C-alpha cells in the first residue's frame, strides 16, 4: 500500500485541482446532537459496551468537519461519512472524489481486561483519499484509502463498499450497505499481533500476522426528519473478522454487532 509521503503528495495534488473550481458555495450548515452507541470493547472482543457520544458538524461548500456519523445528517439522506475534516474535490451527479484528515484515537490496554499487558496503539493523524460512484439514484460504490501520517503503528487500510438508499415518504429514508476492509502488515500487527515482549508480559501466544483482508461488514440505517430542524437516526451493523485478524489470540469473537440511536438539531 502507499506510504505516507506518497499519499500526502497525492492529496496535495488533488487539493490543488479542486481549488481550480470556483462555483459559489451554499451557505454554511451546522448540526449539534448526541447518540447512544453499543459496540464491542475492541475489534474482536467478546463483550460490548454502551457509550453516549456527542454529534456535531459544520459544512461550508466542499469543506466539512464533524464527528463520526454527524456529517451525513446535515443533509437529508446524506452520506454517513467519517469523523474529522474533509473536502470534496470533485462532486458530480455520479462521481465524488475527496480527501480527509482525522485524529485516530488508537487503542488503550485499559479498554478491556483481555488487552492487559499489551502496548497501547498510539493516537495519530490519518489521511484518507475517498471516491464514490453512483450506479443509479439508489445504488453506489465507494473506495477509501487511509494512511497513518505520523508513523505510529496505524499503517494503511483500504475499504471497499456497496451502498443503497431509498426514500420512505417525504420524511424518512432507509439505507443499507456492505463492504470489505483490507490492511497492511503494520496495521494488522498493531491491532491483532502479539510481539515477543507483549507475549511475555500478557501471557498470550506470540503472533505476527501479515497483510490481508481484516473484515466483512454490513449494516442497515433509518433517518427521519422530525421537524424543520430536528433529525433522528437508528442503525444496526454486523461485522466478521477474516484471515489473520480472525486467527489472532486477541480475537475472542469473530462476529461483532454495533447499534446506534441519535438525535440532532440542525440549522443554517
Give start-end ranges of low-pLDDT stretches.
1-11, 17-22
What summary fits the major beta sheet?
A: 12 strands, antiparallel, barrel
Number of domains: 1
Silhouette: globular
Average pLDDT works out at: 87
Strand residue content: over 45%
Question: How do the SSEs run, as a string of H and E?
Answer: HEEEHEEEEEEHHEEHE
The CATH topology name reads Porin
What is the CA-atom radius of gyration, in angstroms?
Answer: 19 Å
Helix vs. strand class: mainly beta
Number of strands: 12
Helix percentage range: 10-25%
CATH class: Mainly Beta
Description of the structure:
It is a single chain. The chain is mainly beta and 268 residues long. It has one domain (4-267): monomeric porin ompg (Porin). The chain has five helices and twelve strands. It has helices spanning 4-19, 70-73, 185-191, 196-202, 243-247; strands at residues 29-40, 48-60, 63-66, 84-91, 95-104, 124-134, 139-148, 156-167, 172-183, 212-225, 230-241, 255-267. A hairpin with a 4-residue loop joins strand 6 and strand 7 (139-148). The chain starts with a helix and ends with a strand.
Write a compact overview of the structure shown.
The chain has 268 residues and is mostly beta strands. The protein has helices at 4-19, 70-73, 185-191, 196-202, 243-247, and strands at 29-40, 48-60, 63-66, 84-91, 95-104, 124-134, 139-148, 156-167, 172-183, 212-225, 230-241, 255-267. A hairpin with a 4-residue loop joins strand 8 and strand 9.
